[in-house]
């Protein structure tokens, strides 16, 4: 066989591979749209396979949830549509983001790839208009870039791609959330043919009632990949995330140190939504932020001071924390006085109880949840100190914190003010120093956990708070009334 003929066959096979395999196309096309080095990762292929299911028509409405920087926009709004045009250049596309600037950014990348010699050698369908905001070809296809509330809702398309319809700083605004949802509602019936109209919404979670929340309530399929927890797919029910709890999604680009900086920069609530796809209601799920009260100075005397403990099973990075609180009651008010909070093994859990007892000697009653390491630790500590009470809690975690709800709503529960140096009430670093800089807690982290519950990864602080308040207030552990459930659409 002549070499030119062999090269022609190889070229045809390469083009066929690009047309049939979006993941293969992605790796080959990267250098034509990006200047940074390509880092391959299993999640890229997983996203590609989900987008292929849309192209095949197996799924017509898909939500993709990825942390920032994990190629969400590039895959869904740049490479995927250009890949589809390899086979179906007649398809019409409308793209929208919250910002016209970002919409044009991705439009520029699409146009750059289409203009490349590499792409034109595979598929030269004839560009008739190549303005960045609108690209048209001789087959009748177009790419239209717009923004939330912008142009485009008068057009009809085969595909609608929504990428970050809501800006992070606008997520707490009902008006901005509704604007984004109104856009999705308007685009919902803009298909050339509604039977085959495909819609993709890609974003990080920002609020339970954000555009993704709306789409999920409508029954859209979804693919969600938290940054350090196994993901979930309703497109492929048998799909299994290869990670264990705590494994980082894209370690070649984003390590633990980077993610910790992001968590501290964003705060726990925003980090939980953007990086773990687990949004919480800003005002709180069960306990509302407006109910939280702070103290600058503690009362001079207390009626009673107690300890409340929740002990984890293991000291792995993915396990819950050991949480020990000191709470005091003064009249009808309740005060968080001190805390130890850290992932600890059994021996260090024993030490933690000793340390907290030594630091707060007036907290004579020590209530330890009779589960996990708490049971054996409590039995052993009874031999060396008084006041140890093993308590098997009544009701579920939710029922217990709901039993305390009236105390919070009445403004009777107080926490250290954020302006107070945390080392004055959180003594964790005093006894368990951490040179990685990941321990340094703030009261805001605790409040985020309390108000985000039950939609939070760890809830050990919530457990010890409800345990302490139920004891101090003489509650039953089950709510005396239930507030109406918060609407999640």
Key features?
9-stranded mixed β-sheet; 489 residues; 7-stranded mixed β-sheet; 2 domains; Nucleotidyltransferase, domain 5; 17 helices; disordered C terminus; Rossmann fold; 37% helix; alpha/beta
Number of individual domains:
2
Largest sheet: 9 strands, mixed
**CATH fold type of the largest domain:** Rossmann fold
Strand content: 15-25%
Number of helices, where a helix is a run of at least 4 consecutive DSSP H or I residues: 17
The percentage helix is 25-40%
CATH class of the largest domain: Alpha Beta
* CATH architectural group of the largest domain: 3-Layer(aba) Sandwich
Rg measurement, Å: 27 Å
List unreliable stretches of 5+ residues.
479-489
Shape by Cα distribution: elongated
Mean pLDDT: 89
- For the largest beta sheet, what order do the strands appear in spatially? 3-4-5-2-6-7-1-8-9
Report the count of strand segments.
16
Distance between the termini: 65 Å
What structural class do you assign from the helix and strand content?
alpha/beta
